[in-house]
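Entries read sequence, tokenised fold; example below:

***
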Amino acid sequence: MSNSTPATDNEKKKSKGNRSPCSPSRVLHIRQIPSGVTGAEVVSLGLPFGKVTNLLMLRGKGQAFLEMASVDAAVSMVNYYTPATPHLHNQPVYIQYSNYKELRTDNQHNQAIFSKFGFVLKIVMFHKNNQFQALLQFADATNAYYAKMSLDGHSIYTGCCTLRIDFSKLTNLTVKYNNDKSRDFTRIDLPFGDGQRTVETSLSAPFATQNTIFPSYTGPPGFAPALGFPQGAGPSIPPVPGALGPLTVTTSAAPGHMTIPGIPGSSVLLVSNLNPEAITPYGLFILFGVYGDVHRVKIMFKKRGIALVQMADASQAQLAINYLNGQKLYGRVMHATLSKYQTIQLPREGQEDKGLTKDYSNSPLHRFKNPCSKNFQNIFPPSATLHLSNIPPSVTVDDLKNLFTSKGSTVRGFRFFQKDCKMALIQLGSVEEAVHALIELHNHDFGENQHLRVSFSKSTI
């Protein structure tokens, strides 16, 4: 893989030693990385704060550039680690904003399909039993799970190159060469080599996911399963809100599901520091429903600032924690963590509840009922820009602006999609405003059974 990294001599000089603080950027410069630290370990520093979209390791210099999906995620990461220095292999590493606004990587077509779901660390392709197969390693197990759920059975091209995806028994890929058969996207220093690869099992590394995909494949549809990827061994860092500890993920008896041993009841979240004057079960259902299907919500009867939210499974619960823990909601910074409970009990008949416990298990508003839903590919952190869809032809720009303004939002920008006027982007005054607007206006009824769909967007206007 060739990368366009810091281009000018000035930039290169600035990356050495201490330098004056840069303005916030979603690319972070990490220094004093010990030798032997893997790309997965560096990526895991950023995962608790949002999606990691790229990584460049400069092993000879003990440095790396880590690209987050948004500036907000990068700011959260820097703000957290500045007073609490993270450690890798028991040695402190230092994080600051980079002068680069993005990391541009060439030759990423092989990972492009899967990178929609998270950062792809490594890919190895090979022939086995007269079939073209691949091993693909994600940095994060949750991303691997959603990639499998969304892409298994789908075709790369219409009517051919159908993907057959399963979790591999291997836990780590070791790539010796960067060429058209294998690639480590965290290493630019690997030789092109002679095309030989090695796949190693590492008992210390957690897991990831597998996949079989290749734009160059021209044979009959259908690949045999057998692929996998891991998270790297976790770094030693201060406790981070929503941080994923090392996970060993295995497939369960039911196809397409995974279990996380040792985390019973991990689909139920404990959400605290809520504003008791503003929060409702429905509001939590809509907000947490962006990251998974919410089955039940319970606001504590005597402590209205605390709630339980039950997701469809453990991976969705962890995803919600990663994206929503620390998010400001109705003037308060919300805290989300795993609960000790395995399920939320509904109130007994006659028990006083005042409507604070709700069952949404059969709600038509679930975004992820269909395993092939495009919603799996459009999971983004809370942002000031919202993606609107299912807009009726009769609704105008002013209608939508007035609708959002009526809910207390400040509209900073708006545009319809050029190719599809049923969709639009609207940019509000802040991330918190957008969170409130999503809760208020997702499923807004335009009449004649047409309802607005609202999601967070990765784009800006």
Remarks:
- The first strand starts at residue 3 and ends at 4.
- DSSP finds nine helices and 26 strands in the chain.
- Residues 71-81 form the longest helix (11 residues).
